[in-house]
Structure formats: structure tokens, C-alpha cells
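Sorry to interrupt, but I need a hand with the structure work. Could you write out one complete protein record for me, on any chain you like? Could you add the entry underneath, on a fresh line?
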Amino acid sequence: MKTLSKIFTALMFLFLYAPLLVMVFFSFNESKSTSVFTGFSLKWYSELLNSSDTITALKNTLILAVLSAVIATLLGTLAAVGIYNMRSKVWSSSIMSVTNIPMMNPDIVTGVSLMLLFVFVGRLIGAITSLNFFTLLIAHITFNLPYVILNVLPKLNQTDPHLAEAAQDLGCTPIKSFFKVVLPAIYSGILSGFLMAFTLSLDDFVISYYTTGADFQTLPLKIFSMTKKVVKPDMYALSSVIFITVLVLLLIINIGQIRTRKSN
């Protein structure tokens, strides 16, 4: 049974990561072929650096992902603390149910509903263009918030509530006790929520498609526009760079958390 489970696990990981490894491998291909490796070359990485449109789309994507992740993490952490401190279980359960709706909703429903809202508000205030960078940012914050709350709230539930009370008994104000005692205890949950929000924002296409303006294009939208013609192999190079960067970042964070647990 153990051997069978190991084989199944290996096949699962192979199924998940084989396409990514193939993409990285063919990003070093000398030709445009995705089936025949004609020779090792950094040609597509060089073309990537020389493509101003792709670099601009990448910058836009990173700016949007960082801003939405930071704002969603701040708001989500405050919301999680508020839900945790609610005395009424009925209210906290109701709010958590409402919080889960954006995650359960199909992306296309969320995207279309937000687009209609932005267009309605834009016409109401007489805006020239209803959709722009700020509507896209609000949309990304909206679908990131539940994931941050669900990462922070379990850490709050694991925290001993008497620690904050003890800090206040020793002279700390409620705000100071939060930053001195509670925040370090839930730091890993906040970091996990930030990383999830950043990744979701980096990856999003459907909601971005409906809520962005004509003057702001993210990388997923650019790749989609390229599929109508042809996807150049420099996209393989860009995707490989993003994949390797995220992989290294996760490894560094996991190693840091393991060392922190051992030191404690």
C-alpha cells in the first residue's frame, strides 16, 4: 500500500510539474519549435529584454500585484482581527459566510458584476472612462481579501488571548500589545496571505479582462492577445523566469520558517 501511494504521489507531481519543466527546457531552444530541441541558446531571453511591450506589461503586472497584495493584506488582517474579537458567534459566522462568496463565485461572474458596478458608478459621477487602473486595482483587492482573512484567522485562533491581556496588565495599550504580542504570533499567517494574494493577482486573467481600461495591460492580457496570432518563444523565457523566481522565493521562506521553529 505504501509503495502504491508513493507511485501515485510521484505521478501526481510529474503531471503537475512536467509542463513547467518542458517550458523551461524549450525556453533555451535555438529555434521556435516546441517539439524539437535544435540547440542551446539564450536567444529568447535576449529578445525578451529587447521587447518593450512585454517589459511594460510585466512592470504593470508586478505593480498591480504588489499594490493589491499589500492593501489586501492590511485590510484582510484588520478584518480577521475584527472577526476574531466579535463576541457574537452568529455575526462572525455570517460574516465568514459572506467572505467566502468571492472564492465560491466563478471568476467570470465576479468580473462581469464588478465591471457593471464600475460602469454604473463612472456614469453616475460623469467620468470620461469608467474602467482604468484604479478599477482593476479595486477588483484585485476584492478577490484577494478572503484569502488573506482565511490565512490570518486560524493563526489568531491559535494565539493565546491571555498574552495580550498580560501585556496590557504590564502597561501596554491595546494597540501596543497588538504590535508587541499578537502581530509576531500571526506573522506567518500574514506572510502566507500576502504571498497568496500576490500570486493570485499575478495570475489573474478573467477578472482583469472585464475591469481594466484600454491604457493598462497586464501580462496575462498580453499573452491572450498574442494567442490570436502566435505566441513567440520569448513568452516561454518570461514564464520560466517568473516560475523560477517564485520557486526560489518559496524555498527561502520555507527554509527561514524551519530555522525559526528549530531555534524556538
